Predict the 3D structure of the following.
Amino acid sequence: MTRRLRGMLVAAVLALVAASALLATRPVQAASLTQVTNFGANPTNLNMFIYVPDNVAPRPALLVMVHYCTGSAGGVFNSVGRDFVTAADRYGYVIVLPEATRDGRCFDVSTPAALKRNGGGDSTGIMSMVAYARQRYNVDPARIMVSGFSSGAMMTNVLAAEYPDVFAAAAAFSGVPAGCFATTNGSLWNSQCSGGNLIKTAQQWGDQARAMYPGYTGRYPRMQLWHGTTDTTLAYANFGEEIKQWTNLNGLTQTPASTDTPRSGVTRTRYGGTGAQPAVEAYSFAGYGHSLPLDGMFPYAISFLGLDGGTTTPPSGAVKSASSGRCLDVTGVSQANGAQAQIWDCNGQANQKWTLTSSGELRVYGAKCLDVNGRGTADGTSVIIWDCNGQSNQQWRFNSDGSVTAVGAGKCLDVPADSTANGTKARIWSCNGAAGQRWTRT
């Protein structure tokens, strides 16, 4: 990391740590954090730390918490991120804490390797940490979140753009849009971006993020953004550019669904909804700089991310075929991997109760997902249930015309020949607008 970058960020980080130290309500034992080695591909030599609370949930959420420049896993754990840790003790979720090891301890959000899915940058190592935690702690793949501060907020934006099929939601404290810090000269510092002078349209910012995962057509994570109006390290203008990017990625305009003031000097705007978990939520702090005014505000982040066990999972219900009025059903009420999906008279049984998660899964029986058999993409590929695994062949998008897109295949959930007969097996097929490809959730 360059001396210039260290010099520009160190004062702001010291203020950040001083302010956030007030949040540490109890001392932390050294054993609270555990370093993990040999966790998988790690091309930039990051360190991995993990926090697993004593009361870890049977199927916990996972939070990736990313530190600021000059920081460390232990530093963010004991200071600015302390409320996330306290909440983990209460709600039983697991925290993964990546740690940068390069000079300056900033995360790379600038080089071509860093700005491409599986490109061999810091993000590649962080995703190895996520995979490690998912495998060992029975993590709920529908509740994987990321949050970070300053450099970590920039990485939060990048991870959410590169791995939208993994992260359900993100919270970035004083960051910049994904791709804003891109450089071509090997430097990790982009003065034009840091100064708030990179201004683009919402479509341009969205396209820049989409280029990090070419060909992906699925949903993007919900995004929560925080910024101070007098930030001179990562200028306040970046806040508006982030809003442009994430409203575009979530298919929204930049017109808020609601605007309010949760406390004096704080303006909150919500896009795509007015509840606690809209598609995009933004907090502007009047008169604050890069020190991040987090005192008393963390509950808003915890609730938005769904780490409090709140409303991240919508209620279960039937998925009805427009061609017959019959329900999407698991054959024979089977819970076995490979059991086929079909249509059948609606009866309210468990094999007809589907939950659409924030990551686009259609879950049945709690832990089984509607799955395109063998990750196939060909017309006629069967639709089955399988253990939920977070892969794109288990992601579905409900469209305004009533069709349901299999994200991995780019084809539609289909009843052959618009059949109305009980026991007709579901499949995927090229989208054509037929009645057998229209569905409603009830």
